[in-house]
Amino acid sequence: MSGTPDFDGLQVRALACAAGYRTLFDGLDLRVPRARWMMLVGPNGSGKSTLLRAIAGLARPVAGEILWRGAVRRPDSAQWRADCLYQGHASGWKDNLEARENLVLQAALDGLGHDPARIDAQLARVGLERQAQLPFVRLSAGQRRRLSLARLALSMRPLWLLDEPGTALDAAGLRTLGNLLDEHLARGGLALVATHQQLPCAQPPLVLDLGAVRS
Amino acid sequence: MREHAATGAFAALGWACRRDLRLAMRSRAELAVILLFFLLVTSLFPLAVSPDPALLRAIAPGIAWVAALLASLLGLSRLFAVDHGDGTLEQMVLAPAPLQALVAGKVLAHWLATGVPLVLLSPVAGLQFGLPADAIAVLAASLAIGTPILSWLGAVAAALTLGARGGSSLLALLVLPLAVPVLIFGAGAVESFTSGLGADAHLSLLGAGLIAAWVLGPGATALAVRIAHE
């Protein structure tokens, strides 16, 4: 139940979140050590997205605490925001900007220096080299997801919070996602992934079923 | 396109400003609508009030200022709402860069894209009403100092109304009463100049308002954006 103070990973203690007046979950505990990933499953509306948003600092939990590397994480601390990468339902990309422009801007916001060669390499890796100059609005649903994969590929942040990253991806796209996740874990990173599909990742996930902890 | 890491305050301000100017250039039609709206509103008054040149000259500064205020309201509701809708705003909230600097960059870009063209267009409105050249210069100066204050008032209101139903009409109700002092000193500057009293006092007060807006605006807007994400 209670966590060790020097636990080097992500830990959630007795967390409760609500949507309006409806309690989504109560007394939720979870631990993700470094180099592991946790798969969040559960029926629609069970609070997977809310849990990810609460951990990222975009939703205020009703009760409980969130610990990062043994200390209560403050959502407004610069260190937390440099450690955590959140990719939610909303794409986070501008319709009017080209795919590459979008990625360059997001990389700068993520605190990465200007490195055109890396940007182009990651765009090629996710299979968007021919779409790099297209406005985001003209990409297909799967290609839009692939642009988010390129952001993950550029990121060196230790904690990934991913909400349905595999939606609309084809088999090759899912393999790329699995490979990115494996590389991330091999670097000592950890990830919390809300998903309805099995991801082709070599490392077996810890599984948390929010449908079961629902109070 | 080159972009360096946007982690410090000034880098973040520059990042947000360049990004929003780039987006504004991609949707130039929206900017043209704002400017046409300004010219149309000023052109309606001679038709509605009276074609008497002396009367029009007397009310010209007020008309130009009211038209500028209404025109600047047009674009404000989209200042944060579009970024809120596509999820780019939540990425800014989560970014390591200070949110105050990011919203300041957005407001600066909004003013450069809509406020500056209004300032440049104001002599046209002044000529329509037969204002003398030096009075037109005072009008443009008062708009140049006053429109950034309007942008900041609007930014706070736009952030507060994020996610609210009917956000853009609510925004107008919030901003218009707060804009009254800006309107009084802005239009008053031209009137006191033409009456021979000089515009210095009015312009100084507007300048004080501008400084206050830049000091208080970033923190208030960032706070309102954070509240919308909790």
Any overview of this molecule?
The complex is a heterodimer of chains A (215) and B (230). Helix content of chain A is 33%, strand content 25%. With 215 residues, chain A is of the alpha/beta class. Chain A has a domain at 9-94 and 156-213: Rossmann fold, CATH 3.40.50. In chain A, the strands form two sheets. Chain A has a five-stranded parallel β-sheet, sandwiched between helices. A four-stranded antiparallel β-sheet of chain A has the order 2-1-4-5, with helices on one face. Chain B is mainly alpha-helical. Chain B has helices at 9-26, 28-48, 53-76, 78-86, 88-94, 99-128, 133-160, 167-178, 180-194, 200-228.
Task: Kindly state the number of beta strands of chain B.
Answer: 0
Whole-angstrom Rg of chain A? 17 Å
Which shape of chain B, going by the Cα principal axes?
elongated
> What's the mean pLDDT score of chain A?
90
Low-confidence stretches of chain A: none
For the record, give the distance between the C-alpha atoms at the N and C termini of chain A, rounded to a whole number.
17 Å
Provide mean pLDDT of chain B, rounded: 91
Distance between the termini of chain B: 34 Å
Looking at CATH, which topology of one domain in chain A would you report?
A: Rossmann fold
Compute the number of strand runs of chain A: 9
What share of residues of chain B is helical? over 70%
**Number of helical elements of chain B:** 10
Query: Helices and strands of chain B: which structural class?
Result: mainly alpha
Write the layout of secondary structure elements.
The complex is a heterodimer of chains A (215) and B (230).
Chain A: E1 9-19, E2 22-33, E3 37-41, H1 48-56, E4 63-68, E5 71-72, H2 78-83, E6 84-87, H3 99-109, H4 116-125, H5 141-154, E7 159-163, H6 171-186, E8 190-194, E9 206-209, H7 210-213
Parallel strand pairs in A: 3-8, 3-9, 6-7, 7-8
Antiparallel strand pairs in A: 1-2, 1-4, 4-5
Helix pairs in contact in A: 3-5, 4-5, 5-6
Chain B: H1 9-26, H2 28-48, H3 53-76, H4 78-86, H5 88-94, H6 99-128, H7 133-160, H8 167-178, H9 180-194, H10 200-228
